[in-house]
User: Fold this.
Amino acid sequence: MFSRVLQPSLQMDKKKNILLVMPKNQFDEDELFFVRDFFSSPEYKLVILSGLGQEAVGNKKTRFTPDGMIVDWNKHLQDQRKYDAVIVTGGKGAKKSLWDDPILPQILTDHHRAGSVVATSGMAAPVLGSSSLAQGEVAAPGNEDVVARLNDYRLAVAEEGLVSYHRVVSARDASVMPEFCEAIRQLL
Assistant:
């Protein structure tokens, strides 16, 4: 008779914590809901926050209530010190509520320094400039306001729909969401 001791896998025991930040209104439903659904599995703990933490209306008039406010980002971590990834999705409201958010650049910078993945999609791309995490070019829509803000940070809009380097991922728009989420997953 023999006995065998099974040791649990460390990878299976540790959920990956992901912070998903959205505009407080006029969010892009295709971006937000694709990312949410992609990371809705037992191996991830997803927290969705916005500037107000209240019910928001998307570009297509869909209503959605996030888990809380950006200012309370660390209250959702429980025993962890940092999120494994911070993803910021866009929409028309990104310009009004995310581009000049006083807390978001610090969250992104601190997490990136700690080894986390930082990612933006669509009109949220300028937050990479305000956090000084982008270099040269980012994937972003050719929207006049986005291009002007990126120029302020000496960044260009990439021709590619997806750009990934040094744990920083950017997507032009919802058309590349499968590749965007897969790139983040691989970096985790």
The two ends are 41 Å apart (CA to CA). Residues 1-12 have pLDDT under 50 and may be disordered.
